[in-house]
Design goal:
Layout (H helix, E strand, L loop, with lengths): L2 E5 L2 E4 L2 E3 L3 E4 L2 E3 L9 E2 L1 H8 L5 E6 L6 E2 L1 H10 L2 E5 L1 H11 L5 E6 L3
Parallel strand pairs: 6-8, 7-9, 7-10
Antiparallel strand pairs: 1-2, 2-3, 4-5, 4-10
Length: about 110
């Protein structure tokens, strides 16, 4: 997987354009993904992706980094040995491209605020 472009409200992955927040895991891009609480990422929001046993969960916190990660989710990931990388979405996209093909990745990407 390669992220070709990201801008506020739009992401291009392997030539395919998406305009909604995404949950990604090996072999799957869920393009109708949304969180229980809009700007607060919780375990229930990423359970599908975590079932793929990723080594890393990359969180795109939005263009300005507004979305927050629940401390309980961070603790859960740490206990499971899953590295959490939570950054504004532009930086998260760079991390995904850097790690793609090297580690089993899952990603939760907020494309706007």
């Amino acid at each position: 997987m390669h992220i070709d472009r990201y801008e506020f409200g739009l992401i291009l992955i392997d030539g395919q354009t998406f305009r909604n927040d995404l949950l990604i895991w090996p072999g799957r891009i869920k393009s109708d993904w949304w969180r229980r609480e809009g700007h607060f990422l919780q375990l229930d929001d990423v359970t599908e992706a975590l079932a793929a046993d990723p080594q890393v969960l990359v969180v795109g916190m939005g263009d300005s980094g507004r979305m927050q990660v629940d401390p309980a989710l961070a603790a859960y990931l740490k206990a499971k040995g899953i590295d959490l990388k939570a950054h504004p979405t532009r930086e998260a996209c760079r991390i995904i491209n850097d790690l793609s093909g090297k580690l089993r990745l899952a990603a939760a990407l907020h494309l706007t605020c």
